[in-house]
Amino acid sequence: MSNRRWRYVLSCEVLLMVASGAAQSGIGPGYDVELLGPPLADPVMQYNKESYVVYGCAYCHGVNLVPVGERPDLRQSALVGADVDGNLIVGILRAGIPQTSKLSPMPQYSDLSEQQLHAIATWIHYARQRDRYASLTQAALPPGNAAAGRAYFEQTCTACHSAGGDLAGIGKKYEPAALLAQILEPAALNTDRSFTLDRLRDTRTMAARRRHQSLLENYSVEQVTNLVTYLQGPT
Amino acid sequence: MYSRREFGKVVLAGIPPLAILTSGAPQAQLAGRPNRSRINGVQFGLQPFCYHDLPMTPENRGTLIKRLVQNGFGMVELHATWVEPRFATAGVSVQEARERLRRWRLTAPPDFYRSIRREFDDAGVVIFTYYVNVDDSYVDAEIDAMFAGAKLLGAQGCVGSQGLRITQRLAAFPGKHGMFMSVHNHANLSDPDALNNEASFLKALSFSPHVKATLDTRHYTAANGDCLEFLARHHARMSSVHLGDRRRNNGRSTPFGEGDSPIIQILRMIRDNEWPVVALLEFEHGTLRTGVEEVQLMFDYCKRAVA
Predict the structure, then answer these.
(1) Choice among B9-13, B209-213, B278-282 with the minimum mean pLDDT
(2) Cβ contacts (< 8 Å) between A34 and chain B: which residues?
(3) For the ranges A7-21, A215-229, B50-64, which has the lowest average pLDDT?
(4) What's the Cα-to-Cα distance from B111 to each of A35, A151, B130, B157, B177, rounded to whole Å?
(5) For residue B224, which residues of chain A lie inside 8 Å, CB to CB?
(6) Which domain range does residue B243 map to?
(7) Measured between alpha carbons, how far is A14 from A12 in angstroms, rounded to an integer?
(8) Band of the pLDDT at B5, cuts 50, 70, 90?
(9) Where residue A61 falls among pLDDT bands split at 50, 70, 90?
(10) DSSP state of B212
(11) Cβ(B158)–Cβ(B131) under 8 Å?
């Protein structure tokens, strides 16, 4: 990660943590728990969610991305799936989508700060990941194809993993459901980022977390069932 | 001195218990009494789309009426989805659901609409307009049925967001029913058929004297229109304003007073000129509060404007 990019990510995260104090003020009398759901354990993500709601995104796209009426379903959006840290979403939020065949164009949010726009983008990704995780772990998945799983693994995972190396025997270590959960959200990455000085520049872990989050919100049923089948085989 | 939001909270805390308010206002009283949301000469009402936490279904109509009373409204613009049965259910194709809805509309007994009107009458709420978005799938008999149903509900007219082409077709219908058809603008400046500025409104109004304007102040502002100029020129052809706030240049919706729509000036123009233009609150800015609380805050803002 470049120094400039590193500084940017750090500043975003710190600002969001500071802003979480303000987020807390929204939880209390007047907070519509029935519509918005209970406050999240992570106050920063709660702030992101509140930003998404307060600036009006939920009116069309739904609090948890279940769209209202015929509005675009962000859970299925290829653009959102291709976005990395808001590099696509923030630009669209800033400019809006004035040219449209729909009754009302998407408004522009150029009056919001970079932090506010990134908070919205972060919530969109988080909600998408939670939705995809739920749909992939709660549904009865079809049998997978090991050969297809191997092809997907070699195309997508081998930059960091090896089926005969760091992942050797993983199919025997985990039951299929647990293996699926590990593929979707590796437990080793499912922790808060540390800001201790010795880990401040741990770009490898940050990149891995980001990569797996991106994979999670884009996985298809076939891809994960094929992966599970492949990794459960004799690797 | 209270801020706008603090003031709203204080007022909200003083809302009487729902049970007292919904004990029922007899129809005779409704006819004889001033409407509860007529304030200093301005008739307020609500587009209940504002209750973002209440799906617009017939099953939720009772809750809607309670909320309207709780928020102090005596007038409503009723969207057809609060009235008509749903045919788009699992296993029913879109085409089949549309055909069933058409058959229902053509055969719905008058008492169906009368009984719904009674629900609102009993709560002291007047149905000012009936909101339906007409498209090419509507046959003429269905459009007549729409106006006939709206009249049975007590509405003075129908409102929709259809474009100029459909409006031209619709223009022949309201006069037959002694009603008006009001056209509602959005902020789509890329569609030549859209209602989005003064010129498109004038085109729509030229189709028939029974066509009226519902000026949506949010979208008109977002499309960089001048709401006050529009009111000054065309108030005689306006049935209502959809009152809400947005920022210019296709900006976002905001709580009242935080955008570029001149809400206070609009209300005072209506009040001081004694124009029979109904002010229907309609907004879609985000909020963490319940729909009832947010509607109350926005209504309180309007009340202060005409106090």
Answers:
(1) B9-13
(2) 53, 290
(3) A7-21
(4) 35, 65, 17, 19, 18
(5) none
(6) 4-306
(7) 6
(8) very low
(9) very high
(10) E
(11) yes
- Cα angle: B294, vertex A37, B246; to 5 degrees: 35
B160 vs B275: CA distance, rounded Å:
22
pTM here is 0.85
- Residue A191 near chain B (CB below 8 Å): no
What is the rounded distance in angstroms from the CA atom of residue A192 to the CA atom of residue A16?
Answer: 14
3-class SS string, B110-168: HHHHHHHHHHHHHCCCEEEEEECCCCCCCCHHHHHHHHHHHHHCCCCEEEECCCHHHHH
In whole angstroms, what is the distance from residue B286 CA to residue A59 CA? Answer: 7
Hey, what CATH topology would domain A3-128 get?
Answer: Cytochrome Bc1 Complex; Chain D, domain 2 (1.10.760)
Residue B299 token pair:
């209504």
Which pLDDT score, from 0 to 100, does residue A30 have? 80
**Minimum mean pLDDT among A90-94, A223-227, B26-30, B260-264: which range?**
B26-30
The total number of structural domains that make up chain B: 1
Radius of gyration of chain B (CA): 19
Tell me if chain B has a CB within 8 Å of the CB of A25: no
Contact A105 B253 (CB under 8 A): no
| Cβ–Cβ gap A56/B285 under 8 Å | yes
- CATH number, domain of B219, equals 3.20.20.150
pLDDT-wise least confident of B22-36, B145-159, B186-200 = B22-36
Cβ contacts of A50 on chain B, cutoff 8 Å: 288
B188 contacts A30? CB cut-off 8 A: no
pLDDT tens-digit profile of A71-113? 889 999 999 999 999 999 999 999 999 988 888 899 999 999 9
Phi-psi region of B219 (alpha: psi -120 to 50; beta: other; left: phi over 0): alpha
Estimate the crossing angle of helix B227-234 against helix B198-205, to 10 degrees: 20
pLDDT computed for residue A3 by the predictor = 52
Domain-by-domain residue ranges, chain A?
Answer: 3-128, 140-232
